[in-house]
Write the structure tokens for this entry.
Amino acid sequence: MNKKQSGLNTAARLKGIIPENHLKTDPLYTYAYSGDASYFRLIPALVVIVNTEDEVRAVITAARNERLPVTFRAAGTSLCGQAITDGVLCVLGDGWRRMEISENSEKITLGPSVIVSEANSALRAHDKKIGPDPASQNACKIGGVVSNNSSGMCCGVAQNTYHTMDRLRLILSDGTVLDSGDPASREAFARTRPDIIAGLETMASEVRRDNELVDLIRKKYEIKNTVGYSLNALVDFTDPIDMLTHLMVGSEGTLGFISEITYNTVPDHPHKAMALVPFATNHKAAEGVQALHEVGVSAAEFMERKALASVEHLPAMVPFVPMLSATSPAVLIEIMAENPKSLDKDIKTACAALIEVGAL
Ligand SMILES: Cc1cc2nc3c(=O)[nH]c(=O)nc-3n(C[C@H](O)[C@H](O)[C@H](O)COP(=O)(O)OP(=O)(O)OC[C@H]3O[C@@H](n4cnc5c(N)ncnc54)[C@H](O)[C@@H]3O)c2cc1C
């Protein structure tokens, strides 16, 4: 049977469970959902807008009965085709927009449809933000941030979802729900899914027996060059449930559905300064970033010469152009501090470090 027909059959199975106007099979609509921010295109057999955990469960069951894969989609800003499919595209509706800040603002609980900048706007009054800061934060949603383990200019590795997650609520493909912040849910999961617990324990002990592999995993996940499953969960945690929730981070929707997360918030000091600092060579720029890291600068982003060339005609770039050779890059820096006095002090320290390494 072709996928288009299977999509129609899946929609028929979901009638009465999902509102009819949330089941889309007409070609114009499915075509509209055939792209994300990547250059790939797949036309979904069915687009379903989901708003509750029961609906997610129903979609997974119906699609499985028609042998169609399910792909979740939050805002669809993925750059590598994570949010497209020729099977069932399960799009998050507005039913997942819970946002609750804890009393001391140390934590925020978010539904997967909350846009990152909305969460940060709510936290701004408390001088806090969530750790992950992708440049797409005005559009991308929490479900996508967790599943891609998105990062950004300030967050690096230290403040990504893996490291700032306090609790995760998820649904597995068989409908099992796990809420890692609820002891009763953890206990029920361990009781009803001993197969998963045992599987995780076996995987973890296999990995840990191999010291070379453990060292490689630790090294790779310390730096920002890993995508996909957070394999470090197998060496960082001893409780299989903690391994599972952390493996969900970066799993791109392949291990289960994320229906809620609680983040530990991070400081967002109100006083900030930014600068674009040119360097003679890429090597010098790298030394500059290292020096800035040592004096506590919150963000430094490398800009290669071609990136600078693309904006060279803009008035803001006029003072920089005479300093740039055909290959010289720049580093975009942000410093933040609790008050103007410490901001001034930090700027002076950063400038001294930059002069020391020979910034232009
Ligand atoms: C201009 C631009 C700038 C960007 N800058 C950055 C950046 O600085 N850093 C960075 O890391 N990325 C960046 N990205 C990539 C992308 O925006 C981020 O990864 C973003 O977090 C994805 O969120 P989304 O809501 O668009 O998710 P989607 O693209 O809709 O989905 C992402 C993945 O999550 C899965 N998913 C979504 N919701 C759920 C759920 N509830 N449960 C399970 N799985 C789910 C999807 O199946 C998919 O695999 C950028 C993209 C653009 C277009």
